[in-house]
């Protein structure tokens, strides 16, 4: 079996070390890996091509197992190639490149469409509370600003990586009134908000996955009967049975991000993500429109997962660079 092109190995290595880019940006970078593969592969026949393409998809998923769009990108390309496996190697190379380019472009246009749908829920003189940095959420704010709506934003800083500070910088530069708060102050400031707007790194029939702090924020919203709107591309939707469990992905930050001293009898846990019951959401804003949480199961009834990935996802996947 031909080996993975060096260009792909180098790109995957960079992806594995990227802890700052969002899920959408990371998936676009992953799509470039497939383009490089289609250009550099030495596969001699269709079977070898499909085998090596599958291995590449699995390597990408292993590099960032908690990033659902990378799973869906890999699955969509593999299933498309499986349907055309009788084609020549050149035909499969062209198909791989086309599907990867389509995914890249759709990711960009999806954010714009999410912004169009989402801005309708931002009313004049309203205050929106959010956490961390989401490209989908940012697009909604951008569209609302373009519509000349007058609104305020409260942003939880999202420790330990402080992604919220990035959002505050962007919004303030656009002339939007914004307040930055520490995460533990969300209970104090939720009374000042009219709605909660969050992004997501993954959505299943039961849960959505997002930056740590999202769950308590949603519980605060429920206590005060505030609506919670979730904004994300449909490329982040994945059936629960295929989602890499948080405890299996090693999705934790460095101990030093929490406490710099080394202690013999103390454990320090620094999770980046958590799962939140989808029932705590009021609406889910996607590039195809607005869904109710109860409509998610119907969406997943149409999803097809490659048999190669069905077997692969039963394996416990660990990302060593992300363990404590």
Give an overview of the whole structure.
The chain is of the alpha/beta class and 324 residues long. The chain has two domains: 108 residues, Four Helix Bundle (Hemerythrin (Met), subunit A), CATH 1.20.120.420; 207 residues, Rossmann fold (3-Layer(aba) Sandwich), CATH 3.40.50.10470. Helices cover 45% and strands 14% of the residues. It contains twelve helices and ten strands. The strands form two sheets. Strands 3-2-1-4-7-9-10 form a seven-stranded mixed sheet, sandwiched between helices. α2 packs antiparallel against α5, α3 runs antiparallel to α4 and α4 packs across α5. The protein starts with 5 loop residues before the first helix and ends in a 12-residue tail after the last helix. The relative contact order is 0.13.
Describe the structure concisely:
The chain is built from twelve helices and ten strands. By secondary structure, it is of the alpha/beta class. It has a seven-stranded mixed beta sheet, with helices on both faces.
Our count of helices gives 12
3D shape: globular
Number of domains: 2
Mean pLDDT: 88
Strand order of the largest sheet: 3-2-1-4-7-9-10
Query: Percent range for helical residues?
Result: 40-55%
Percent strand? 5-15%
Identify the notable features of this structure and list them briefly.
alpha/beta, three-stranded antiparallel sheet, Rossmann fold, 10 strands, 324 residues, disordered C terminus, 12 helices, 45% helix, Four Helix Bundle (Hemerythrin (Met), subunit A), seven-stranded mixed sheet
Which secondary structure elements does this structure contain, and how are they paired or packed?
Elements: H1 6-17, H2 23-40, H3 46-63, H4 68-83, H5 89-118, E1 126-131, H6 135-146, E2 151-156, H7 163-173, E3 177-181, H8 186-189, E4 195-198, E5 202-203, E6 207-211, H9 214-223, E7 228-231, H10 246-249, E8 273-277, E9 283-286, E10 289-291, H11 296-300, H12 307-312
Parallel strand pairs: 1-2, 1-4, 2-3, 4-7, 7-9
Antiparallel strand pairs: 5-6, 6-8, 9-10
Helix pairs in contact: 1-2, 1-3, 2-4, 2-5, 3-4, 4-5, 5-6
């Amino acid at each position: 079996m031909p080996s993975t092109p060096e260009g792909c190995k180098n790109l995957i290595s960079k992806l594995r070390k990227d802890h700052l880019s969002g899920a959408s940006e990371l998936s676009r970078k992953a799509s470039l890996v497939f383009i490089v593969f289609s250009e550099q592969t030495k596969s001699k026949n269709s079977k070898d091509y499909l085998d090596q393409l599958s291995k590449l998809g699995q390597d990408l998923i292993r590099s960032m197992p908690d990033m659902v769009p990378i799973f869906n990108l890999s699955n969509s390309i593999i299933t498309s190639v499986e349907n055309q496996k009788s084609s020549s190697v050149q035909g499969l190379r062209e198909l791989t490149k086309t599907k990867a380019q389509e995914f890249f472009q759709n990711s960009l246009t999806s954010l714009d469409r999410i912004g169009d749908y989402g801005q309708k829920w931002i009313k004049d003189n309203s205050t929106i509370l959010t956490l961390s940095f989401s490209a989908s959420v940012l697009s909604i704010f951008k569209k609302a600003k373009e519509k000349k709506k007058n609104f305020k934003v409260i942003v939880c800083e999202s420790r330990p990586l402080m992604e919220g500070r990035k959002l505050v910088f962007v919004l303030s530069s656009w002339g939007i009134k914004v307040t930055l708060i520490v995460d533990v102050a969300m209970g104090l400031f939720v009374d000042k908000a009219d709605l909660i707007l969050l992004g997501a790194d993954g959505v299943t029939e039961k849960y959505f996955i997002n930056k740590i702090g999202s769950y308590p924020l949603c519980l605060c919203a429920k206590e005060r009967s505030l609506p919670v709107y979730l904004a994300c591309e449909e490329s982040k939707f994945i059936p629960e049975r295929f989602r890499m469990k948080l405890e299996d992905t090693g999705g934790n930050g460095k101990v030093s991000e929490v406490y710099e001293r080394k202690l013999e009898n103390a454990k320090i846990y620094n999770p980046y993500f958590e799962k939140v019951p989808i029932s705590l959401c009021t609406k889910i804003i996607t590039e195809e429109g607005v869904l109710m949480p109860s409509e998610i199961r119907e969406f997943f009834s149409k999803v097809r997962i490659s048999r190669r990935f069905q077997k692969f996802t039963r394996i416990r996947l660990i990302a060593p660079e992300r363990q404590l």
